[in-house]
Amino acid sequence: SAAALCVGVGSFADPDDLPGLAHFLEHMVFMGSLKYPDENGFDAFLKKHGGSDNASTDCERTVFQFDVQRKYFKEALDRWAQFFIHPLMIRDAIDREVEAVDSEYQLARPSDANRKEMLFGSLARPGHPMGKFFWGNAETLKHEPKRNNIDTHARLKEFWMRYYSAHYMTLVVQSKETLDTLEKWVTEIFSQIPNNGLPKPNFGHLTDPFDTPAFNKLYRVVPIRKIHALTITWALPPQQQHYRVKPLHYISWLVGHEGKGSILSYLRKKCWALALFGGNGETGFEQNSTYSVFSISITLTDEGYEHFYEVAHTVFQYLKMLQKLGPEKRIFEEIQKIEDNEFHYQEQTDPVEYVENMCENMQLYPLQDFLTGDQLLFEYKPEVIAEALNQLVPQKANLVLLSGANEGKCDLKEKWFGTQYSMEDVENSWAELWKTNFDLNPDLHLPAENKYIATDFMLKAFDCPETEYPVKIVNTPQGCLWYKKDNKFKIPKAYIRFHLISPLIQKSAANVVLFDIFVNILTHNLAEPAYEADVAQLEYKLVAGEHGLIIRVKGFNHKLPLLFQLIIDYLAEFSSTPAVFTMITEQLKKTYFNILIKPETLAKDVRLLILEYARWSMIDKYRALMDGLSLESLLSFVKEFKSQLFVEGLVQGNVTSTESVDFLKYVVDKLNFMPLEQEMPVQFQVVELPSGHHLCKVRALNKGDANSEVTVYYQSGARSLKEYTLMELLVMHMEEPCF
Predict the structure, then answer these.
(1) 242-287 pLDDT tens trace
(2) What residues act catalytically?
(3) Between the chain's N and C termini, which has fewer beta carbons within 10 Å?
(4) Where would I find the Peptidase M16 middle/third domain in this sequence (predicted)?
């Protein structure tokens, strides 16, 4: 069972002299209540009964949620409701909890996404709430108030009394009880939440937060990770009231398209970009009562970084093409159909996520659209789409360029996260060109009709006896197939997973790296042809496993075989140009580097290196890559990889056993390989640690990261199921007091 409560107020309401107060209060209300004074009481209660809780503060909303075993739901509701009825917020808990808020801030600091958001907010007009420091830290909530004789404790209570009022709270409870019972409980438990009758704070009059000279510029930023990225951003009037049309969803669908004629398809052919995503994330920061953002973020190659103005120009050419053509009903209906299918056949979400989503929806939509308002497209209004689309012009865009190459050229520092950046005017020749009626790009056009959208949702009859678990129905020297027909969920979807096993991969660090490059190039080659399937909710993923290539596809079963065959065809006819090879290896260097500079990922790699016999470390792989590998060595590796394999497959869902056999047959026929000489284990052997205490110290590779990482590993060896279960239980008991 789960419950979530949303208060219609957030960090926008922070007082100017106490940045982060709303976030701090979200922490403080949980520190015991009059009825249940124990400071950790609620967390301990949930832990004991298999539950969990969380809370988050957004710009104009604060959400609290928890889940717990059903038989303890009523008691949990009562304990939880007390935080909104009579929280203690004792003075001496303040200093301790400031530390928790501060460590959240410290953990957020090395994240490029958070830094970019903070920098973006700082561009808002002076005095606009978008420019506030929402996180809060020890400086703003403890040291600064002390120096200015501000009583944080009194101000917390004042904020709670003013803003935690019942008339703009929304509550969702989900449980197997009858609705009447739940209604009775809620009335009984929550009726005492105070209602101060004061108007809800409203920021809707503060429009155009970014109508300022600081906005339409080029910002160069030094990122933490190794990456080149260009983000183009527009600040539009608030779009929430158009939720029945979802104009930004329509535009981002086209801008983020990766098929023929799309921005990314063109940039990939030029070897300028690796990824692109665009639109509005619908967080309070990106969409609130004062504005809506529309942004396009492009991950650039080294070459693309050199040509970032041309990359921006390509985006502007595409948008201009859309503006000229105007909205198209065919495309709107295609998106609508896909969203309808997804909604109609959705799998049940985790209750705690569902209630969290619903209580926010209740703040945003009228009653009849609580369940659907955030997902469905209800009506086609070309004029609403055109109005948003026509604002996406170069003159109103802000450019942010992230790159390590900016190091040393950035003379400004963002106040809270310390991000180094510089601000300049857009280069004159480009600024002048963008003011004119510039030419369109003939390579950019709307996507063709999507052949992967499912239309047959019939559930198939069994053609073999029902089984509880997957059963091996094919077993040959070249491969085997596991199969299970779905008899539980009864939805027209299927799940297919294949593992192409080869002993070649682990022979050397260089082979592991060549395999990584191979899988990345294969993914790159598939990006355009498989994109249509991807948007029609057919998901695919290629993973460079430790002992083989893992291919996963899932989604509506009607068109799923088409996608699977497409992937195998591209694997069978694998090829790469020198330009793509260079682009992917450059990117892989950055990926390895970004793993090595994070204490937690480095620590995991070192731990596995100690434990797993015959494993190549990330440092080994990074060195092999830096030593240089050739396209010839890649092609001969791939040829050898494909010549000898063992293929293990699993097909389950709305598929007959006859159909499932075709998947394995397709792989075997298409790749035409020899069987392996001997059977191969697909797990590393783990060493048995000698008894005693062993300490391995590793110096982190990022000098600027203040976070440390400690891993304590207790080896149990192989045990019985019961003992494993007891270990899990032990961990659950330890977690809450440690936290």
Answers:
(1) 999 999 999 999 999 999 999 999 999 999 999 999 999 889 999 9
(2) 26
(3) C
(4) 343-624
